[in-house]
Every structure is written in C-alpha cells, then in structure tokens.
Predict the 3D structure of the following.
Amino acid sequence: MKNIVFTISRQTYKSIIANRATLALAVLLGLSLCLATYVGWQNFKLQNSQRLHYKQLVRAQWLAKPDKHPHRMAHYGYLAFREKHELSFFDFGIESFAGVSIFLEAHKQNTVNFSEAGFSNGMLRFGEISVAMVLQLLVPLLIIFLGYNSIAAERESGTLKILLCQKVSWKKLLWGKTFGILAVVLSIFIPLILLTILLWASLSGWAVSGDSAIRLLILIICYSAYFFIIVAITVLVSAFSKSSRTVLTSLLAAWIVLIIIVPRITQAVGNRIFPVPSKLEFLDQISSDVQKQGDSHDANDPHYSGIKDSLLKAYRVDDVKKLPFNYGGLIMAEGERITSGIYSAHQKKLNKKFQRQNSITAMVALLNPYLALKQVSMALTASDFETFVDFQNQAEAYRYGLAQKMNKLQIDKISNEKPGEHDKPLSISRSNWAEQPDFNYKFKFYGKVVQQEGVALAALALWLVMVILLLQYSPRWIKTV
C-alpha cells in the first residue's frame, strides 16, 4: 500500500508542478508571502523601536524630576508601553487596533491609547497583509485550485475506472492524492518557515528563549494540520462529486462562507448577545460608584472624617497636624485603595463581557477550522485580546504600586505643617524617584497560552481526526461513476 500511495502522491505532485497555471499561482503566493514577511519585519522593527525609545525617554524624565511633594509626583504619573512579542511580525492580530501605551496616575485608571489604527489612514480598514493572513486565507484558495479536479477529473476522463482496476483501492487513491497536493503546499510553506525562524532569531537579538521556541513549534504544527485538513476536505469533495465544476463551486462557496461570512456573523452575534456599554457610559458608572464611596480630597467627607476622628482618638490629639505621620498621605492611600478597587471591578466586568463575546467565536471554531487556527495563531504570537487584557492588568498593578509608594513617602517624610524646628519638609529629594522601578511588561508563559486556547486547539485536533477517519473509511460510500 505504501508504494502505491507514494507513487500516486509523486505523480500528483509532478502533474501539479508541470502545470503552468499552478506555477503562476505558486509564484504569486510566494511573492505575497515574501511581501507579508517584509511588511511584518518592518512593522515590528519600526513600532518596537519607537516604543523602546519613548519608554527610555519617559524613564529619563521621571528620574530628572526635581525635589517635590510625592503626591505631585503621583499625579505627574508614568507612561507604560506594551512591547511587541518577537513573533508578532508573523500575525498582527489586534495589534493595530489595540493601544500600545497607558498613562498611569493616582486615583484614576486610564484607557490604553495610541493604537496604530488611530494614526493611520482609511487603508487600514481594508486589512493588513501579514504572513498569517496569507497562510490562513490565500493558501486554502491555492489548495482548492490545486485539488478540486484531483479525482473528479479522473472520473470525467474515464481514467478513474482504469486506476481502480489496477489494484488501486479508493483508500490508496485518496491518501495518495492528499499527500501529493500537501507536498506542493509544504514546498512553499517550509521555505517560509525557515525564513520565519531566521527573522525571529534576528528580531530577538539571536537570544532565542525557550518559551518563544516552543510557541513557534506549536504554531508550525497547527498551520501544517490546517493545511492537511483543507487538502483532505478538497480531495474528499472531489471524490464524492461527479464533475470538477461542481467541486470548484462547492469549495469556493464553502471558502466564502467559512472564512468571510461566518467570522463576521459570529462577531455580530457576540455583540448582540453580550452588549457592552459605550466609553461614556462606562466612565459614568465608575464615577457614580466613586462618589458613593466618598472623596479623599474632601475633608468633610463622612467616610474620611470618620477615619480622622478615630485617629485623633487613638493618638489622643486634637489636630491631625499633631499626628506622628502625615495625615494627608494616609487619607490619599485609603482613597487610592477604594478607587482602585472600584475601577478594577468595573474593568473586570467589562473584560468579562468581551471574553464572552469571544467565547462565541471559540465555540463556532469547532465547526470552522479557520477560526480555530486564527485564535491559536494570535495567542501564540501575543497579538490577541487576552494579551491586551494582561497588559492592562500588569499596568494597573504597577500604577497602584506607584501611587501607594508615593503615598508612603508622603506619610513618612512629609511635614504635617506643625510648627517647630525639626519639622519634616514639604518636599523630598529627587533620589526617591529612582526607588520606583521601570515598567516592564512580561508575556505569558506558553503553557498558560495553550491552556487558554484549549477549545481552539481541541477544535483543530477534532478536525484532523475527522478528516483522517474520512480518508480511511469513506471509500465504501464513494461511487465510481
């Protein structure tokens, strides 16, 4: 059986390569992949260099601030940047639409800003060319044109009966055709992967991390499985159809439905089932909850005046200026704790709605291998929504730590404006600013990414198993004529 399958696959490969139309399509696709790789490389190089430049500038400006009150530094704030993963040149995902930086200041959580889409012209609406986009959308089209007549043409010309009479079983024929077409696809895909590895190593400064290496390996396996699924489906449809025209029409219709229409319908359904508030509504809800909890800048606020009374009683003094620490710093720390909790609760609630919307796509991926691969590809290249949320969470943790650090400095080192010779100052040394570390975003470990995309990976695995079983056992239902 192996010899017959190999012979059929080799003959299929040779006949496809000998076709001028196939050669033209392969060259066109190859050029598209080269262009996409170059665009992705330039995109990574330009955007990451800009982010690193401004990150260093923000740090230098923070350290250069003169002696001042720490609460003023808390309101001066810090600008956190989200660096690009070295594999993001392969798949842009939502990179161009998700913000790259967030301004961190006391008592407030700001939104992530400065997305690439916000500074681009209307051409971005037509989509960006990336390696992932070409492999996910255009390679299936190439497979369709290579394999739509793989068996249907044999039936139409009458050679199918001759093949089956020469001890070539349907099972061998299906596997041979599948491997032959797959070999053509891989002859384009493998050089691209080698180029991807070279670029990836270059972008990471030749300091290849184990995490990124495993990510890339999983990515290669998933794309290879995707191509095998598409090739197998193409061959099976060709085997069950009576004419090449029917096969081509059916496969192109399936491509349009599964790759163009279904993803958009899925997004619309997700937005309809799990609607999210507008930005103004979201901020209004937060403002309303903050007002209910009190205002730390208002000395007569019931919540904070209660804290004041309890402190005066505990330390047996009649004025906050006589407390052994800065009362204002303590109140600011309490206000930061309360407002941070409110902001975080609302942000988690909003993110949960977005995740529920995305869960619709994840479930539909069980019926659509394209969506499954798309989810996995974005996650492994750190260009997905979950990475964006993770950046928000890490930035918020940094913001809260910075604000409370400044409040602690105010509590310990700032005067209560109490008269006397040995009062604490109203400002502190600039050397204190260096104690606040720089913000550095850390990407998730690949294990968490795989766990997070369990449904999408399971969908790809199910499709792979299904087409293998169909190649093995469907011949009994295929009609020769």
In short: The longest strand covers residues 101-105. The chain has one domain: 2-477. The two ends are 24 Å apart (CA to CA). Confidence is low (pLDDT under 50) at residues 117-126, 418-422.
